Amino acid sequence: MATTHALGGAAAALLAAGALPAGAAPAWLAAGAGALGGLLPDVDHPGSFLGKRVPLVSDAVHALFGHRGATHGLLAAAAFSLASWWAAARLLAALPPGVAGGAAPWGLALCFLAGYLSHLLLDMLNPQPVPLLWPRPRRFRLPVPPVVVTGDALEAWLVRPLLLLAVLWMGWSHAVDVASAIPSPGDGRGLSGAVGEGAGHFATDLRRALAGLLRAVARAIEGS
User: Mapping DSSP to helix (H, G, I), strand (E, B) and coil, where does residue 14 land?
Assistant: First the structure.
C-alpha cells in the first residue's frame, strides 16, 4: 500500500543519508526524496496514490508495460535516479539560502534511489514476483517468509509499524545529533551532547544491523 511504500522509502533514504558525508542529504530532504522514490514504481497502476495524481502518465505507462512491469526493474530505478539528480539540483537552487544547508543533488539522488529500491524489496515480499532485470522476463521474490499480501493484516500490523518506528527513530536521532552540535553551558557538551552521543551510537548499530539483513537477503536471492 502507498503508506507502507512511502514509509519504506523514507526509512531507506534516512539509512542511506547516514552513510553520506555530513550535510549531503539533510534528514527532511532525504526522507522526502526517499518517500517519493518509494511511491514512484507504482505510477504504472492508475489506481495507485501516484497514478491518481498523474492519470495521463499512469494510463500511458500502464498501457505500455502493465503493472509491475518496466517501472519495477533496476533499469528504471537507475533512469529515474538520474532524473532525480537533475530535479534535485533545480530544487536546491530554488530554495532560500540556508534552508537546505550543504545538501548536494547527488546525495538526494542516492536517497531517492534507496527509496525506489525499497519499493522493489517490499514488493518482493508479495506472492507476485518482481521483474528486477526487465526487459528480461525473469521475475524474483524473496525466498524467505513472511509472504505479505497487499493490504492484509501482516502489512498493517507488522510491516508498516516497524517502518514507521524506523523513520521516527532515525529522524529523531538526526535531530538530536544536530542539537548536540549546538554549544551548551558548562562543559560545552551538556545534556544534548550526551543524548546525541547515545542516539548516534544506537543509530549506527541499527544501520549496521539493517545492512547485514540486506546482505543476507541478497545472498538468499543469489542462492535461489
Answer: helix
193: its cell numbers: 551532547
Q: Cis peptide leading into 185, omega within 30 of 0?
A: no
Average pLDDT of adjacent 10-residue blocks, the chain of 224 residues: 92 90 85 95 93 93 92 96 94 82 90 96 90 93 77 82 86 62 47 46 52 53 51
Question: What values do phi and psi take at 213, rounded to 5?
Answer: -65, -40
Nearest to 33 by CA among 87, 90, 79: 87
* Helices 27-39 + 105-123 axis angle, to 10: 40
Closest CA to 39 of 10, 17, 70, 69: 10
Which residues have C-beta within 8 Å of that of residue 136, sequence separation ≥ 6? none
The residues that bridge with 130 in the sheet, in sequence order, are 140
Helices (H) and strands (E) in the chain, counts: 8, 0
